[in-house]
Amino acid sequence: MNRARFALRRERLPEPAAYYRDQGLTLSGRGEWRSARCPFHDDRHPSLRVDLARGAFRCMACGAHGGDVLAFHQQRHGLRFIEAAMELGAWQATPPRR
Ligand SMILES: [Zn+2]
Known about the structure:
Blueprint: E1 6-8, H1 16-22, E2 33-36, E3 48-51, E4 57-59, E5 65-66, H2 69-77, H3 81-87, E6 91-93
Bound molecules: zinc ion.
């Protein structure tokens, strides 16, 4: 029996800069790593560092961190991996193998 196979399609994750803007973060600074006010604690000045190339993030104050926008989306919204991937449009049927 053939069943649809679903998996994370990492290439469909949103582009980090656009994603973080959509999440209400104001990114400041220049270069690959930008700063923003951390949404995981009551941040009065930008403690969160965001890597625009991979989407990785790390807060220098509260320690929140992750390797991509999917990890951010899970933590920010309390979602499981698959739920977050679905919301971001990256949980897709895998194409058949040739
Ligand atoms: Zn923080």
